[in-house]
Amino acid sequence: MGFWKRIAVGLPATIGLLAWQVTGVDAATVPADTVQNPDTQNAQDLGPASPGETITASLILKVQNEQGLENYIQQTETPGNPNYHKFLTTSQFADEYAPSPQVIEQITGYVEQLGLHVDQVDADGLDMQISGTVAQFDNALNTTIDNFRAGGREFRAPKHIPHIPNVLLNSVLAVVGLDTEQAAQSLTVKTPNVQGAPSPKVVLPQSGSTATNTPGSYTVGDTANMYDINPLYQKGITGKGETVGIVTLSDFNPSDAYTYWSTIGLKTPANRIREVQVDGGGQIDSGSDETTLDVEQAGGIAPDANIVVYDAPNTDAGFIDAFYQAVSDNVADSLSVSWGQPEIDYLAAMNNGVDYTDELAAFNQAFMEAAAQGISMFAAAGDSGAYDTARDFPPSDGFTTPLTVDFPASDPYITAAGGTTVPFSANFSLGSVKIQKERPWAWDYLQNLGYTGLFPIGTGGGVSVIWPRPWYQMGISGMQNSAPGQAFTDSQGLLFGTPFTYQLPANFAGRNVSDLSMDADPETGYLVYDSADGGWIAGYGGTSFVAPQLNGIAALVDQFTGSRVGFMNPMLYDLQRTVGYGPNKPFNDLKDGSTNWYYQAVPGYDPATGIGTPNVANLATALALLH
Question: What biological processes does GO assign it (predicted)?
Answer without folding.
Answer: proteolysis
